[in-house]
Amino acid sequence: MSEIIAIVPGTFDPVTNGHLDIIKRAKRIFDHIIVAVAVNAGKTPLFSFDERVELTRGVVESDSELEGVTVEGVKGLLIDFAKKKRAKVIVRGLRAVSDFEYELQMAFMNRRLNEEIEMIYLMPYIKYSFLSSSIIKDVYLNGGDISNFVPELVIEAMNKKIGRRNVQ
Ligand code: ADP
Fold first, then answer.
1. Is 95 among the catalytic positions?
2. Which pLDDT score is estimated for 144?
3. pTM to 2 decimal places
């Protein structure tokens, strides 16, 4: 049987331990994982596209549990990228019911665009189920400690981008 390639897409603004949990779960199931960092025109990210690609790649490359996982920036339609990479699966994380409606809409749209690529949803470890990039930015901006929720590289990038405020 041929190898199954899976894409784990997102904005990753910034990448959190919740994202990493989903990537690790996907890695246990599929043969090769490509993390796809999206432009996301609908959101105004804190980190630029290039910064998000670089930071996510840096985090993935420094995590021994993520050996072999690659990170790429994606500018066009995700489904076209998946096809180009011969991926059969797109993996998304589902934290709560609140994620569901948006994901369902995306899944149906992606299916309309390409019937051959399946969307698969994984639930994170419960301690990450409330975690989002937005919450991380809020907590950081208000001087809270985010070290349990993001890798050290992300804290360094936040310090560089925003400046240290009583973090640690
Ligand atoms: P997007 O803008 O595409 O939703 P995000 O970077 O916010 O990008 O999220 C990317 C994917 O990771 C989504 O499937 C999202 O549900 C999932 N995700 C984000 N945070 C978590 C978390 N704490 N636990 C599980 N999945 C998560």
1. yes
2. 93
3. 0.94
